[in-house]
Amino acid sequence: xxxxxxxxxxxxxxxxxxxxxxxxxxxxxxRAEPLVRLLAVHKPAVMAALAADWQARHREALAYWRALHPxxxxxxxxxGELENRWHRLHGARAxxxxxxxxxxxxxxxxxxNFAVGGRVHLDNLGCLxxxxxxxxxxxxxxxxxxxxxxxxxxxxx
Length: 157
Prior knowledge:
The structure is a single chain. This protein is mainly alpha-helical. Helices cover 54% and strands 10% of the residues. The strands form two sheets. The protein has a two-stranded antiparallel ribbon. Helix 1 (3-12) crosses helix 3 (43-66) and helix 3 packs across helix 4 (71-90). The model has no long low-confidence stretch (mean pLDDT 91).
């Protein structure tokens, strides 16, 4: 079976398919369990197709941003774009009642809500910073598992 066709069927069935380390992680409705088993049977091809998609997006984004910015700046912009995309698609989500930064309950305290889901305490900058560091680290690990590498940080402030 063609991995891209299988991934399209998984998407149509409401499944989210991602590579995490050396594992193929599939989230979605229980009714799609037969399709999940089929993804497992074809795991190497499915993982290769997922990685190829992300690598193609990386190349396309580099070509675009390099036309507008110096190479080192373009690489940082691309990496940020890919981190955001990975987080939006695969990032861990905290329940609405819980601060995504410190993990404590929000309670009746003011909170900053994110468009992709999640909230942090509004009166504690540390919560926002901790959340940002956590999701970027998760995205970096996920992107590295896809064969991508962040730009060099030499020369940055």
